[in-house]
Design a protein that fits this description.
With 405 residues, the chain is an alpha+beta fold. The chain contains 15 helices and 15 strands. Keywords: Aspartyl protease, Cytoplasm, Hydrolase, Protease, Protein transport, Transport.
Length: 405
């Protein structure tokens, strides 16, 4: 089998040896290659020093494995002054510090077990990275020491001291939080990763774009700039101006009543509100999701349209434009423009959007009468209720919408 040995000066040596060869014979081969006497060699495997009498197979060395060789003579040549550390925990002489630790097989073995990140930095070539980790470890030790001192002070605090009791209560609460956090790391680590929102590739009026699929948004939305780029702004009906309420609010510039969207290889009619919202280009909302019988299949990670006649995959993070993922920029834009619209539709007669009054309207006898009248025309109740809510109870506009859909 072949094994690779890396020396302290980062020389790479490949040896062809038998799996039952002894470590001592391997050192003899290395003496020929490096001119370092066998007695001054220390071989490390997985961070632990191996004995001369050990067989390679017995210590788990397999084909293409890596061993480290350090020289005891080189280690002893480093002066104690070169191992001093600065006040911030960094090494005064990082190069000498690195060499000294490399040549201490016992210490390297403990580092591999207890702090593999620091061990890798010591074996690497980036001294700046090594210094960063040393400073970080120093800060962590300081913080741990302060916590211990605070806990000790609380232990001997006056039990009738109100402030001390508050600190004890806070410490107990924080301990519970830390335990909960540790449990989450073990059993639910994916909760700490960023959740990527659902985007699919679509074509709107023949132009490809990334559509944000949001079942929590009542209406399908397009920004003014995107509508202009797609050549649809000429169809803007400004009678549907208003204010869309959701998380914050945005100005509704009007409505585009119908335009073709292509999902997969199939074209579907789509209508959408046009918003003055720079942080969202195109949002495929609940109205069109329901109209086209869409299914958000998170198991297969696809959007099924038309009850399953078309399936398109949700985009991976690398395929989503970075401007859509820039959360800091999004937050700033949202605060300046009134926030992303998650629900709300325009009322052309009042110029005001409403996304939370449907419950009150449903209780109104007049609203139910309008529902019954439109249901008699052959439309489903759910579609009728949605259309009336879309136009804030305007029966004629709801009927026009239903006949047009």
């Amino acid at each position: 089998m072949k094994i690779t040995v890396m020396t302290a000066d980062e020389q790479i040596i490949t040896l062809d040896v038998d799996s039952h060869e002894s470590v001592e014979n391997v050192k003899a081969l290395l003496e020929v290659e490096t001119s370092v006497p066998l007695q001054q060699q220390q071989l490390l495997f997985n961070g632990s020093e191996v004995r001369n009498s050990d067989k390679l197979s017995a210590i788990g060395v397999k084909d293409d494995d890596l061993l480290m060789m350090v020289s005891a003579a080189a280690a002893s040549s480093v002066s104690t002054d070169d191992l001093r550390v600065n006040a911030d925990g960094s090494a005064a002489n990082p190069g000498a510090f690195q060499q000294r630790i490399r040549h201490d097989s016992d210490l390297m073995g403990r580092l591999y077990q207890n702090d593999p990140e620091l061990a890798q930095a010591i074996l690497g070539n980036d001294l700046n990275r090594l210094q960063e980790i040393l400073r970080l470890r120093h800060r962590q030790r300081d913080q741990f020491q302060r916590q211990k001192e605070e806990e000790l002070a609380l232990l001997y605090a006056d039990p009738f001291d109100v402030e001390a009791q508050k600190k004890i209560e806070a410490a107990i609460r924080q301990k519970g939080i830390d335990e909960n956090w540790e449990a989450a790391l073990e059993h639910n680590p994916e909760a700490f990763a960023r959740v990527v929102m659902l985007y699919v590739d679509m074509e709107v009026n023949g132009v490809p774009l990334k559509a944000f699929v949001d079942s929590g948004a009542q209406s399908t939305i397009i920004s003014k700039s995107c509508a202009e780029r797609l050549g649809l702004l000429r169809l803007l009906d400004q009678r549907y101006k208003g204010i869309a309420h959701g998380v914050g609010q945005s100005e509704i510039l009007g409505r585009i009543h119908v335009a073709p969207i292509k999902i997969g290889n199939v074209f579907y009619p789509c209508s959408f509100l046009v918003l003055d919202s720079p942080n969202m280009e195109f949002l495929f909302g609940l109205d069109m999701l329901r109209k086209h019988q869409c299914i958000i299949d998170l198991k297969e990670n696809v959007l099924r349209v038309g009850g399953g006649e078309v399936s398109v995959p949700f985009l991976q993070e690398k395929d989503i434009p970075s401007r859509f993922l820039d959360e800091e920029k999004y937050a700033k834009e949202a605060s300046s423009s009134g926030g992303p619209v998650t629900s709300g539709t325009a009322n052309p007669s009042q110029g005001q959007a409403s996304g939370g009054a449907s419950g009150d309207r449903s209780k109104d006898a007049g609203f139910e009468a309008k529902v019954a009248k439109l249901v008699e025309l052959g439309f489903g109740r759910d579609a009728v209720v949605q259309a009336l809510q879309l136009f804030n109870g305007n029966e004629e506009q709801a009927a026009g919408f239903l006949f047009g859909g």
